[in-house]
Amino acid sequence: MTNDTYSQPQLNQLAGDIKQWAQELGFQQCGVTDVDLGHHEDALKDWLSKGYHGSMNYMADHGNKRSRPAELLPGALRVISVRMDYWPEQKGKAQARLEQDQSAYVSRYAVGRDYHKLMRKRLAQLGKRIQEEIAESAYRVFVDSAPVLERALAQKAGLGWIGKNTMLINPKAGSYFFLGELFTDLPLPIDAPYPKYHCGSCSACLDLCPTKAFVAPHILDARRCISYLTIELKGDIPEELRPMMGNRIFGCDDCQMVCPWNKFSRLTGEKDFSPRHRLDSAELLELFEWTEEQFLNNTEGSAIRRTGHESWLRNIAVALGNAPTTPTIIAALKGKLSHPSVIVQEHVRWALARHGEPLAETTERQETDKSSVR
């Protein structure tokens, strides 16, 4: 039977089956929406026009594809949106690590296996299951892997509302979950968009952002966001932002940890999201000693590998500059002064200066930079 010969009752039954299959595949929620994202398209264009995307040129490189699903899957009529919980530890442990300034803080979504591969595989299984029912149907799977407005689609599919911190929030699960999408050409019945906005007058996420990255509710200037600075940005981190980064070396969870709705979040049941290589509890000095080979080995199958060893050392150098002064920290920093990367060297020198160890090399580089400007 082809996709255009299904009756509406049969499509209704299929939609229910899809949600059941999604649950069996480990997704905590599944919803269906149409492909109209006109309002969100205008908001994205305005955000890009202000330069809030920083060096993430890929955000602007795909024209209107982010807001027009049919340009990614010709004939797309519906988007199946799913979410999967990822928080790996008891509440309070992450905050405690942030307060231990010689410990490394890695955003909790990244301490385990790379979610992209896991969720893509599950969504592909869901797509194949649908094709077993309707052989001639077409689908395409996305997990943060193409220009897709995933939070807008999830809100339209009834999975939650978009909070002031730009995260999707579910009243029964908070915001510690991944999103994924399956585009389909099937005219499935759609779910109602999430009907309410429950942030109210709360501004905790905006007020407690370490770098004050929120221009206004729902508007993030990525150029000041610690996740952007530690993951997306290549090159030098702006000096004025470095002291605000604390011990965060990959990503940031602050605007979520302070959100009252995350008291309803649940621990993940996925073993693959459990911490690996002590990334939830390692000390800064321990990670600073990883060679490039160790970094590549220890981040195999991890979202962290994306940042690269150079940026990894850069980020840790900043964190060590924010840590209390100890002979061990100073010795470790000095040991990286000869690192082949100019970027690593610069951040190491900055960190040493924070500990009262201004070096001649720092002055020499500053003078060279000034000369080049002239």
TrEMBL record:
Q: Which domain of life is it from?
A: Bacteria
Any Pfam family the entry gives: QueG_DUF1730
Which InterPro entries does the entry link to?
Answer: 4Fe4S_Fe-S-bd, 4Fe4S_Fe_S_CS, QueG, QueG_DUF1730
Q: Which cofactor does it need?
A: cob(II)alamin; [4Fe-4S] cluster
Q: Has the keyword Transmembrane been applied to this entry?
A: no
For the keyword Cell cycle, the answer is no
Name under which the protein is recorded: Epoxyqueuosine reductase
- Gene Ontology molecular functions: 4 iron, 4 sulfur cluster binding; cobalamin binding; epoxyqueuosine reductase activity; metal ion binding
Q: Assembly and partners?
A: Monomer.
Specify which residues bind [4Fe-4S] cluster 2 according to the UniProt entry for this protein. C209, C225, C252, C255
UniProt keywords (A-Z) are: 4Fe-4S, Cobalamin, Cobalt, Cytoplasm, Iron, Iron-sulfur, Metal-binding, Oxidoreductase, Queuosine biosynthesis, tRNA processing
Q: Per the record, what are the reactions this protein catalyses?
A: epoxyqueuosine(34) in tRNA + AH2 = queuosine(34) in tRNA + A + H2O
Any one Gene Ontology BP term: tRNA queuosine(34) biosynthetic process
Q: Where are the transmembrane segments?
A: none
